[in-house]
């Protein structure tokens, strides 16, 4: 028989799981309920494909979806090689004292508030981009992507380090015995063995990039037009939610905010399921 303490702990954990699941479902239901009139009148697909022109009766979030995708994916392009190099340096090349110090710095960077990254970008990176390309104000897709890439790099680096540390030491010793260089060890031993864990890190970093508000709000320029290049301003879904202020509870502007929330919620759900699937596939292979 189970002890009374174990039964009590099981019930508490069960109630906690049910409560968190219920709150998550309730949030989705609330956003769908609030955004349903907007989706019903114009159609959800129309809402996703139309531009944002409120004075002409168009409240589509298509430019914001493209802006979110452009900034997030470009930040991932910047962050991936940087994270890969840092994690390889920490786990393989650097001596232990340097490794511990560098790892502490990476962990510290994960706790820096997003607004700090935004302020540094405004006063340091925006003037550089403006003077370098001689185009626009410097607040554009490229600026926001660079800062966002730096922000998500620590998250990816920690995931990559964890994946590299899980590689059996015998694999690395065998590569050393064959005279493999650091580059060969990375390409032919570490990356193939750690690809599932690295994929989880990339997916979660992408989710953080999509869900960020302040960096895109402060640095992307917040234009509601579709950007034609990385030097043009754009607006993300999260920034759109923060910027749209509607005094009328029933106005289309107010309802469109919840449509943005539904899109972000569905993306987050897809990212979560994808990470779970990758983790399950990795455990099954082991």
Structure, described:
This protein is mainly alpha-helical. Helix content is 78%, strand content 1%. A hairpin with a 4-residue loop joins strand 1 and strand 2. Helix 3 runs parallel beside helix 6 and helix 6 packs across helix 8.
Number of strands: 2
Would you identify the CATH architecture of the domain at 62-244? Orthogonal Bundle
Describe the strand arrangement of the main beta sheet, using strand numbers: 1-2
Low-pLDDT ranges = none
> How many H/I helices?
11
Q: What is the CATH homologous superfamily assignment of the domain at 62-244? A: MetI-like
Question: TL;DR?
Answer:
Helices cover 78% and strands 1% of the residues. It is mainly alpha-helical and 286 residues long.
Ordered list of secondary-structure elements with their pairings:
Elements lengths: L3 H39 L1 H6 L2 E2 L4 E2 L2 H32 L2 H15 L3 H20 L7 H25 L3 H9 L4 H30 L2 H6 L17 H7 L8 H34 L1
Antiparallel strand pairs: 1-2
Helix pairs in contact: 1-11, 3-6, 3-8, 4-6, 5-6, 6-8, 7-8, 8-11, 10-11
């Amino acid at each position: 028989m189970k002890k009374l303490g174990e039964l009590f702990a099981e019930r508490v954990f069960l109630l906690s799981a049910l409560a968190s699941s219920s709150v998550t479902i309730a949030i989705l239901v609330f956003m769908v309920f609030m955004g349903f009139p907007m989706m019903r009148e114009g159609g959800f697909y129309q809402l996703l494909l139309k531009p944002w022109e409120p004075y002409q009766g168009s409240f589509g979030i298509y430019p914001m979806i493209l802006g979110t995708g452009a900034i997030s994916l470009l930040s991932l392009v910047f962050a991936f090689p940087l994270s890969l190099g840092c994690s390889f340096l920490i786990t393989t090349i650097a001596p232990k004292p340097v490794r511990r110090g560098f790892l502490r710095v990476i962990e510290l960077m994960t706790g820096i508030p997003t607004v700090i990254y935004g302020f540094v970008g405004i006063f340091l990176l925006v003037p550089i981009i403006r003077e370098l390309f001689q185009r626009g104000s410097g607040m554009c897709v490229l600026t926001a992507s660079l800062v966002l890439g730096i922000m998500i790099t620590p998250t990816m680096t920690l995931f990559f380090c964890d994946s590299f540390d899980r590689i059996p030491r015998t694999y690395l010793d065998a590569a050393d015995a064959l005279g493999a260089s650091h580059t060969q060890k990375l390409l032919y031993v570490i990356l193939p063995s750690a690809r599932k864990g690295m994929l989880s890190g990339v997916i979660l970093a992408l989710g953080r990039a999509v869900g960020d508000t302040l960096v895109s709000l402060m640095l992307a320029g917040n234009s509601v037009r579709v950007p034609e290049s990385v030097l043009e301003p754009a607006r993300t879904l999260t920034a759109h939610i923060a910027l749209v202020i509607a005094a009328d509870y029933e106005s289309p502007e107010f309802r469109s905010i919840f449509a943005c929330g539904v899109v972000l919620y569905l993306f987050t759900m897809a990212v979560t399921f994808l990470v779970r699937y990758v983790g399950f596939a990795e455990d099954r292979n082991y």
